Amino acid sequence: MARLIKKHYEQRLMLAMLVYMVALIAAGPLLRAVASLPLKAMLAVAPVLPMLYVIALMWRRISDSDELEQRTHLVALGVATALVSALSMGGGFLVAGGVLHLGGDVLIWVFPVLMMGYGIAYRQVANRYGMGVLCTDEGSPWLPWYFAVTAVVMAAFGLDAWWKHNAWNALAFAATTALFVTMAVWVRMRQSRARRLERED
């Protein structure tokens, strides 16, 4: 099997995330219109399929990495898993004690929170080992636009949740929107700075 270079990895990852967002947006109205339980179940889990592809992409990318990068990914994933486990346990006890009242849809946030924790932890561990997290030469120039479009989609979901008086989901989508906006600005600044340094050299 050919080695998956970073540029192709990013392109496939972004395509999978776009498919995920389209499936997520389309599933809502279709679920309300369909009466058949098996079809409703298939539509409900449709957004999971591109996420499984993302997990497979990540596994292939990590397996193609050298030992140092594999160690970095492993430490970051361990930190993210510990964070999500602690949050899930704390939230579970709060719900069991009647302090919080959360529906089953809160489970949708487990994977995104895990990925966000993984991304932050990976950056910190990579900096510790002196590794660059973003290589502009290999990275996709439209990566900031991907983050920006994702932020717009998350903001739309947040407004929909607000109109439905679901304050918890509205707050979660607002925080996710802010995160993706921050990522778009940060990546754009990194890419612009790298190009400026290349011109000066």
If you had to describe this structure to a student in words, what would you say it looks like?
78% of the residues lie in helices and 0% in strands. The chain has 201 residues and is mostly helical. About 2% of the residues have low confidence. Helix 6 packs antiparallel against helix 7. The longest helix is centred in the last third of the chain and has 34 residues. The protein has seven helices and no strands. It has three domains: 64 residues; 65 residues; 68 residues. The protein is globular and about 60 Å long. This is Transmembrane protein. Keywords: Membrane, Transmembrane, Transmembrane helix.
Question: What does the secondary structure layout of this molecule look like, with pairings?
Answer:
Elements (H helix, E strand, L loop, with lengths): L5 H28 L3 H9 L2 H16 L3 H30 L13 H19 L14 H21 L3 H34 L1
Helix pairs in contact: 1-3, 1-6, 4-5, 6-7
Q: How many whole angstroms does the radius of gyration measure?
A: 19 Å
Query: Globular, elongated, flat, extended or rod-shaped: what is the shape?
Result: globular
Mean pLDDT: 80
| Count of extended strands | 0
